[in-house]
Design a protein that fits this description.
Elements: H1 3-16, H2 22-34, H3 40-45, H4 51-54, H5 60-75, H6 80-98, H7 103-106, H8 121-145
């Protein structure tokens, strides 16, 4: 099974078997691939990060990977400046690829009883692949500068 297929399957399972939001889904996928192990406090903190609790603000597909970059960067000994730079680079790259950082733009129908659950599954699969590729590119770049 290819990486994209494995990511698609994992997104589907986290959405439908565990009923996780997009931010928690990407945070878990990245942590499962790269470490660190996520504590309950981190997972609890991500509970409302799907467009600010459905408000439509910053998308959880951005927030989950940003949380991961902070946790992972700290574990790897990155400085605060390096973590902040990595988060900015991710946000810029995400916006360039998907057209926005805002949930209300990426999911214009919003949330509510009229919207099917896990409406963003396809977008989440694309964002998961994007996040994994982003992290892989950062690793290659860091290795080439070492």
């Amino acid at each position: 099974m290819g990486t994209t297929d494995a990511l698609r399957e994992r997104v589907h399972r986290l959405y439908w078997e565990h009923d996780l939001n997009c931010a928690t889904t990407l945070l878990r996928i990245l942590a499962e691939r790269e470490g660190p192990v996520l504590g309950d406090q981190v997972l609890d903190a991500a509970l409302g990060l799907h467009g600010a609790g459905g408000y439509g603000a910053q998308c959880g597909l951005v927030e989950g990977p940003l949380l991961f970059l902070g946790l992972s960067g700290k574990t790897q000994g990155w400085s605060r400046k390096e973590i902040i730079q990595a988060c900015r680079a991710y946000a810029e790259a995400f916006e360039a690829r998907f057209g926005s950082l805002q949930c209300r733009v990426l999911r214009p129908e919003g949330f509510g009883p009229h919207v099917p659950p896990h409406r963003c599954e396809e977008l989440t699969c694309a964002a998961a692949t994007f996040a994994v590729d982003f992290l892989e590119a950062r690793k290659r770049s860091a290795a080439s500068h070492a």
